[in-house]
Amino acid sequence: DGGITQSPKYLFRKEGQNVTLSCEQNLNHDAMYWYRQDPGQGLRLIYYSQIVNDFQKGDIAEGYSVSREKKESFPLTVTSAQKNPTAFYLCASKELTVNNSPLHFGNGTRLTVT
Amino acid sequence: QKEVEQNSGPLSVPEGAIASLNCTYSDRGSQSFFWYRQYSGKSPELIMSIYSNGDKEDGRFTAQLNKASQYVSLLIRDSQPSDSATYLCAVNMGSSASKIIFGSGTRLSIRP
C-alpha cells in the first residue's frame, strides 16, 4: 500500500540533544512537508520541499533543519537551538503535477524533550 | 493578520442539526482550499477540497467558497456524534503553488 511512514511514533530526548525525525513516502509525490502541532493548536509549517536537493523555510523554521537527498525521504532534525521542541510533528506529501492536489499525511511523531 | 483564520471554538451543535465552520484567508491569489478533520491524537484526514467560487457538495458535507470575500466555509448536515473533532482549514497560498498554510482549527462537539 502506498503511504507516508513516520518513525518513531513516540520519541523522548534530553534537552540540548539534536534529534532526527524520519519521513518516507512511496506515493511518488514531488513535494514533502513538515508541520508542527502544539496542543489545541493548528498545524504550523516548518519546511517544505518541491524537488530533490531543494527546500524552503516555512513560518517556524528556526531551530530546525531538513535535507532532501532522495525523492522518497525528507528527514527533519530538531536542533538544540529550538527553544520549545516538545510537540506533535506531522510529515505530508503532495503531487505537484496534478492541479489542486491535497496533502497526504503520515501518522505523526510525538516528541517529548525534558 | 494571520494568513488563515478560524474560530477556535468549541462549537457545540445538537445531533441532527447543521454545523457551520468558517475560515478566512489573507492571500487574494490563493487558488486551492481544503477542509481536514482531525481526531485527538491522530493525523488530519481530508474531507473536502474546493477551487471554484460557489458550493461543492459531498454527502453530508458542503464546502462554500467566496474568493471576493476571501472566505471558505464547511457545512455538515445531520450532524452525528462521530463528527465531533477538530476541523482544519488549509489554503494553498497564491504566492507559492506549494506552500500550504493551515488555520488554528475549530473544535466541534456534537451533543446528543
What does this entry show, briefly?
The complex is a heterodimer of chains A (114) and B (112). Chain A is mainly beta and 114 residues long. Helices cover 0% and strands 49% of the residues of chain A.
Chain pair sharing the greatest interface: A-B, 25 and 26 residues
> What's the mean pLDDT score of chain B?
94
Q: How would you characterize the largest beta sheet of chain B?
A: 6 strands, mixed
Helix content of chain A: under 10%
Low-confidence segments of chain B: none
Strand percentage of chain A, roughly?
A: over 45%
**Unreliable residue stretches of chain A:** none
Helicity of chain B, in percent?
under 10%
Task: Report the structural category of chain A.
Answer: mainly beta
Distance between the termini of chain B: 37 Å
Task: Write down the Rg of chain A.
Answer: 13 Å
Number of strands of chain A: 11
> What composes the largest sheet of chain A?
7 strands, mixed
Task: Summarize the helix and strand pattern of chain A as letters.
Answer: EEEEEEEEEEE
Number of helices of chain B: 0
What is the CA-CA span between the terminal residues of chain A? 36 Å
Radius of gyration of chain B: 13 Å
Task: Indicate the topology.
The complex is a heterodimer of chains A (114) and B (112).
Chain A: E1 4-7, E2 10-13, E3 19-25, E4 31-37, E5 43-51, E6 54-57, E7 64-66, E8 76-78, E9 87-94, E10 104-105, E11 109-113
Parallel strand pairs in A: 2-11
Antiparallel strand pairs in A: 1-3, 3-8, 4-5, 4-9, 5-6, 7-8, 9-10, 9-11
Chain B: E1 4-5, E2 11-14, E3 19-25, E4 32-38, E5 45-50, E6 54-58, E7 61-66, E8 71-76, E9 85-92, E10 100-102, E11 106-111
Parallel strand pairs in B: 2-11
Antiparallel strand pairs in B: 1-3, 3-8, 4-5, 4-9, 6-7, 7-8, 9-10, 9-11
